[in-house]
Write a structure and sequence with these properties.
The structure holds two protein chains of two kinds. Chain A contains six helices and nine strands. Chain A is an alpha/beta fold. Helices cover 28% and strands 23% of the residues of chain B. In chain B, the strands form ten sheets. Chain B has a five-stranded parallel β-sheet with strand order 10-17-11-12-13. In chain B, strands 26-25-27-28 form a four-stranded parallel β-sheet, sandwiched between helices. Classes of the chains: A alpha/beta, B alpha/beta. At the A-B interface, helix 3, helix 4, helix 5, strand 5 and strand 6 of A face strand 1, strand 2, strand 7, strand 8 and helix 3 of B.
């Protein structure tokens, strides 16, 4: 698995870099165009450009078209936190016929434009650094393959109050086994102790 | 009557050890006739009625309890010397020899629905809860007006059993306060009080009812209508929380309150006071959080994977939240979440198989000396090594969660952490420090806590100096000693390693190894004549955006103390050290 690297037909690494404006969320502070231009002559970078919304349908389509047209085999998206959109772009990679792990994000929104709002130059410089770091990393990434494992179709519900009871009943009604654990001698939780309940003003039990 | 003692495994294949406590009554045979309780001579306060009535040592929490069976509290029972309940039970379903049972369950997903506990008003004594009998909590009030409660629903004052002619409700007891209780709004208390006023007006139309509040939050569907109804029925809403409560000779209360709608200090005499208690995380929250590797908000409730888009998912795959475990909420919202977790859990389980993240570690057999260090540090026992037979380490990829601690601890470079290899990380350092290295702070941030904390600072628009650059790893346990040395070799003035707080680690306890490693490197730095404070270690949770930005400011201050000369010197020292080895 380690040695496998994705290369294009002629054996070269071809990286696409997309600096997302995120409307104005990033572009208001970071000079996205400048960042894209400054990294465009780095080795292996085949395409580098700014893009209005990388995560949107047109954004993804544009990247996928570039992948086909320029024979890209690795992608850097400089936009928001990977904790938000990494899954989105991994799917995009798969749809474009690439391994989803040959992709890296640089977090320009949460780590630059939103937190250095009054220092546009410094934010732009930092953005460029983050993109350079992502390019260095993406170049070395390996194709990885997910494994399929067996799964137990049973749920442990911890707590027998109204939320736990509702979850347990819904799961059971859908044909799933449930183990409901309650530490008190009876289920019912806090709600059982209440008299009437809002907004319907009816009894709790 | 059970508790989850231990959970092992991973999404789709958890193993839970559940301790089922002995009831000392065979629940399937008990008919709830109650003869045993009649015979029992031991009397204790009844928890279900919050101490407003009594029960026996053998009891049933409430008539509709499920399972419908009696139970003995063995700490209260007089034991075998007394066997009155045994003699009274026709069904012979009482068994003093019953013992706790341990049950192992294999499960694919977990729903955490551990609820809340009401705020304990004893610390807020300005309202006199510990001093005056006729100051009650909202929960005690519930029991007093409940037809199944100790008074059959007749409202009386606990101090003298008189019927109160006037009742005051004090809002936000334990909520929205910087001094006592929680800073957050407890969500339910406004509506619960409005409901209580309607219940009172229904039974006692002439009762004088006052509500003292900061502001009324009647935001849900149908809520404003209830609030208007309450006002129309004559309930008086006074904007302001009482400053003091005194007891009068007739055991009613005189309260002083600044009415903030007219700026005047007003006094009210009320027969009874009800404290609208806020909501706190339930007591077992911390234990379960550590067991399942979950995260908490600063309030102490469980932190969801995303506050808008993944509101019932935990960051730990396969774990979901429902109800007040995740934050204060009312019944309707709790029910909604109960159904929501069902959909999320089924989405995960319905195929009967699960696709695992391939970010796992791999052993380079030729380099492995079978020293066993990797197996020792793995929080998941996912690595096996036969040290005696010198067989190289084997990683069970299904059990490997991908923290990378093994890779960081292997001194023979015999472990590759996929997707976070040494090269993939050090080349980021290269790119970062290629220009103006002296102005930059190298930050290693774990995905689940400190990186998420940085995200939180971003979402909250908290501004901080722009000198730090983050290198993301899944766990701080991945941060190899080599990565730190490499950054200093390349001219980094400051290196910060950051991860989840001890006890909060997403990978059980991998960050304990981070802590040890950083201490070790700092010692070595001292020996080499480098200032050890240039290597920093900080724990930042996913909810600590403010803390993250504060630390960035501190790091920047620290950075300004590192001169170009010091950096040059460091680079030389490290070069010489490398040549020696």
């Amino acid at each position: 698995m380690l040695e496998k690297v994705s290369t294009s037909d002629d054996g070269s690494t071809r990286i696409g870099v997309y600096v997302c404006r995120c409307g104005l969320n990033i572009a208001q502070t970071v000079d996205c165009k400048k960042v894209a231009e400054n990294v465009s002559d780095i080795d292996d970078v085949a395409v580098s450009k700014e893009i209005p919304y990388a995560c949107s349908e047109p954004g993804q389509v544009e990247i996928q078209e570039d992948i086909a047209e320029h024979n890209l085999n690795r992608v850097v998206i400089a936009s928001c936190s990977p904790r938000l959109h990494e899954p989105t772009f991994r799917n995009m990679m798969v749809e474009a016929g690439l391994n989803p792990y040959l992709f890296e994000m640089a977090n320009l929104r949460e780590q630059c434009s939103w937190v250095h709002m009054r220092e546009p130059e410094a934010a732009t410089k930092k953005s460029e650094d983050l993109v350079r770091m992502a390019i260095s990393r993406v170049r070395l990434l390996s194709q990885l393959y997910a494994e399929t494992l067996p799964l137990t179709k049973r749920t442990l519900v911890i707590g027998g109050g109204i939320a736990g009871i509702q979850a347990a009943l819904d799961l059971a009604d859908n044909g799933y086994e449930v183990v409901l654990v309650e530490k008190k001698p009876s289920i019912g939780g806090m709600m059982a102790q209440l008299d009437k309940t809002f907004p319907t003003m009816d009894c709790s039990i | 009557m059970s508790d989850v003692a231990e959970v092992k495994g991973y999404v789709g294949n958890f193993k839970a050890r559940i301790v089922k406590k002995a009831r000392y009554v065979i629940e399937k045979e008990c008919t709830s006739c109650g003869d045993c309780a009649t015979a029992c001579p031991v009397v204790f306060p009844d928890e279900f009625n919050v101490g407003l009535s009594s029960r026996k040592a053998i009891y049933k929490s409430f008539p509709q309890a499920v399972p419908s069976s009696y139970v003995i509290n063995m700490n209260e029972c007089m034991g075998r010397g007394c066997s009155k309940c045994l003699d009274a039970c026709d069904k012979n379903c009482i068994d003093f020899h019953m013992s706790d049972e341990e049950i192992m369950e294999e499960i694919g997903s977990i729903v955490v629905a551990t609820g809340f506990k009401p705020y304990d008003p004893r610390e807020m004594d300005e309202y006199g809860y510990t001093r005056f009998h006729n100051v009650v909590t909202s929960l005690e009030f519930e029991r007093l007006v409940n037809a199944g409660g100790p008074t059959q629903g007749e409202l009386i004052r606990p101090g003298d059993r008189k019927h109160p002619q006037s009742v005051g409700f004090i809002q936000c007891v334990g909520s929205r306060s910087l001094r006592k209780g929680g800073e957050y709004c407890s969500n339910i208390c406004c509506m619960n009080t409005i409901k209580s006023t309607l219940v009172l007006k229904e039974h006692y139309p002439d009762m004088d009812i006052k509500v003292f509040y900061i502001d009324i939050r009647a935001f849900g569907k149908g809520f404003e209508e209830l609030y208007n109804r309450s006002r129309k029925l004559g309930v008086q809403y006074v904007r302001g929380l009482p400053g003091s409560v005194e007891e009068l000779p007739d055991r009613s209360m005189r309260i002083a309150v600044e009415n903030t709608s007219n700026g005047k200090i007003e006094f009210y005499d009320l027969d009874m006071l009800v404290l609208a208690l806020g909501i706190e995380p339930s007591s077992g929250t911390r234990k379960l959080q550590e067991m399942l590797g979950l995260q908490l908000t600063p309030d102490g409730f469980y932190l969801e994977a995303h506050p808008k888009l993944l509101p019932v998912d935990a960051a730990t795959r396969g774990v979901f939240y429902a109800g007040c475990a995740e934050g204060p909420k009312d019944i309707k919202e709790s029910v909604t979440q109960g159904s929501a977790v069902t959909a999320r859990a089924i989405r995960l389980m319905h195929r009967g198989e699960i696709v695992s993240e391939p970010i796992t570690s791999e052993v380079i057999i030729e380099r492995c000396t079978a020293c066993g260090k990797c197996a020792e540090v793995c929080p998941y026992n996912a690595i096996t090594v036969d040290k005696k037979m010198k067989t190289p380490a084997v990683v069970n990829t299904a059990a490997c969660a991908g923290c990378g601690t093994c890779g960081a601890e292997c001194i023979f470079d015999a472990i590759v952490m996929n997707h976070f290899t040494d090269d993939q990380i050090n080349r980021q350092t290269d790119a970062m420090l290629e220009e103006d290295a002296g102005e930059k702070i190298v930050v290693f941030a774990c995905n689940w806590c400190s990186y998420a904390g940085a995200d939180y600072a971003g979402v909250s628009r908290i501004q901080y100096p722009p000198n730090a650059r983050l290198i993301r790893t899944m766990c701080s346990g991945r941060v190899d000693e080599k990565f730190i040395w490499y950054a200093f070799e390349k001219g980094a003035p400051i290196v910060l390693v950051s991860g989840c707080h001890i006890g909060d680690c997403h990978y059980i306890n991998a960050n304990l190894w981070t802590e040890k490693r950083v201490a070790k490197v700092r010692k070595k730095m001292e020996k080499l004549g480098l200032r050890p404070e240039r290597l920093q270690l900080e724990w930042i949770s996913a909810a600590e955006g403010l803390r993250f930005s504060g630390i960035m400011k501190e790091m920047e201050e620290l950075r300004t103390t590192v001169s170009q000369e010091e950096i040059r010197e460091t680079v030389e020292i490290l070069k010489a050290r490398k040549q020696k080895s």
